Amino acid sequence: MTPGTRSGPRTALGVAAIFVLLSGAALVPNWGTSRQMAVVEAGQTFQVTSEGSGSWAATLTDGRPARGGTIRSQRVLAMDRADLVELTLAPGLATGQRVAAGETLGRLRAPRAERRLAEARAVRDALQARRDLLAAGARDADVAVTQTALRVARAEHQAWQPEVARLRTLVASGAVSQAELQTAELRSEVLAAQVALASAEVEAARSPARPEALHEVDAEIDAVEAALIEAEELAGELLTSPIDGVLELGGAAWLLRIYDLDTVYLRIPVPEHHRNRLRLGAPVRFSTRSADRQLFLGEVVDLSVDAGSLPTGTRVFWASAEIDNEAMMLRSGMTGQVDIQLDDGSEGLIGALWHDLVGA
Q1: 292 pLDDT tier (thresholds 50, 70, 90)
Q2: What pLDDT score does 129 carry?
Q3: Does residue 136 lie within any of the structural domains?
Q4: pTM of the full predicted structure?
Q5: Which of 174, 201, 235 lies at the terminal end of a domain, its last residue?
Q6: Which helix (H) or strand (E) holds 190?
Q7: What does DSSP assign to residue 82?
Q8: Same domain flag for 247 and 229
Q9: Are 99 and 243 within one domain?
């Protein structure tokens, strides 16, 4: 076989290879990447905040939305502005430890509201005692007992008044706090309520059993029971974690936070000219100096509908990408560089045929 004869098949193969490469460019989509800075968001965040005005809130947010955390649930408990709210943490809790969903974190309580609760319970018990007296009818022995209770209640109320007057004088001079005076005034109110109830019990003991009187007391008992339910809610709240996560204690505006970091999200600014080339499900690669030589893979899961402005004035859309964080190397607030795969809009022949086939 001559050299010229051998070169024929080689030439044909070379031409065929070039044809395959050129036709391949038309058959498959063309891709590019967008490289941006991104911020890590926890998958979910549970936090307890004190508003500083007699209220607190327990809030669970979802880190998936492109524009930032969205509230999934929130419980707000409003208390008297003059009351103090105390948080007592469960023993052994420390920043950085993992907690499980349902685990007790502590108890929020309001001492003033707890005293109101005790007062409401005392009122209910007194009303029930009065009802029992009315149902039994007038009896000399019961009258004598209630009269003695009334004298004791009046004596306790009168004996407490000099202490209230003394504290009012000391508050004016700054020797005691306003909170101490409020506590003393509240006790005076409780003692006055006990006098009124003792007086009512005397009248009940003297009265014969009458249906209308019993109905009246029953209505009062129902009202107090309703007030008790509210008072129990205001008096305190047992805190439990709604999620598995990492605990962080203390802060100027918040009391505690729990971060679900098993799955994290990246918040990514997308330039306007890239928005129409970005698709849900687009692959992303993320790296950060906080985890050297580690490459984290994920995909875009949410895109904002409208554009917003960066502090520089640049208009951008926002994307959210889900990243598996099984090794717990990524933490909320970390920053890094992300490469996002873009579609230039040219599907190629295979892509077009496939979309026609499946109707996508």
Answers
A1: confident
A2: 79
A3: yes
A4: 0.55
A5: 235
A6: helix 178-206
A7: T
A8: no
A9: yes
Q: For residue 253, give the amino acid letter.
A: A
Query: Helix (H, G, I), strand (E, B), or coil: what is residue 55?
Result: strand
**217 shares its domain with 148:** yes
Q: For the chain, how big is the Rg over CA atoms in Å?
A: 36
Are 251 and 105 contained in the same domain?
yes
Q: Is there a contact between 242 and 46 (Cβ–Cβ < 8 Å)?
A: yes
* Pair (167, 224) in one structural domain: yes
Note whether residue 5 is domain-resident. no
Whether 224 shows a pLDDT value over 80: the answer reads no
pLDDT of residue 331: 92
What phi, psi does 249 have (nearest 5°)?
Answer: -105, 150
CA-closest candidate to residue 321, choices 295, 282, 294, 287: 282
Dihedral sign of CA atoms 163, 168, 174, 179 in order: positive
Domain match, 100 and 178 both: no
User: 195 in a domain, yes or no?
Assistant: yes
Q: What is the mean pLDDT of the chain?
A: 77
Burial (CB count <10 Å: 0-12, 13-18, 19+), residue 124: middle
Are 266 and 320 spatial neighbours (Cβ–Cβ below 8 Å)?
yes
Kindly state the average pLDDT of the residues 64-84. Answer: 70
Please, what sign has the CA dihedral across residues 127, 130, 132, 135? negative
Same domain, 162 and 182: yes
What does the CA dihedral 100, 103, 106, 112 come to, rounded to 10 degrees? 130
The predicted-structure confidence for 147-179, as pLDDT tens digits, reads as follows 788 888 898 889 999 988 888 888 888 787 877
Q: Which domain holds residue 104?
A: 44-61+72-109+239-256
pLDDT at 1: 47
285: pLDDT strictly greater than 70: yes
Number of domains in the chain: 3
For residue range 119-144, list pLDDT tens digits in order. 777 888 888 877 776 666 656 666 77
Q: Give the residue with greater pLDDT, 26 vs 44.
A: 44
Are 204 and 269 members of one domain?
no
Between CA 104 and CA 49 the distance in angstroms is: 17
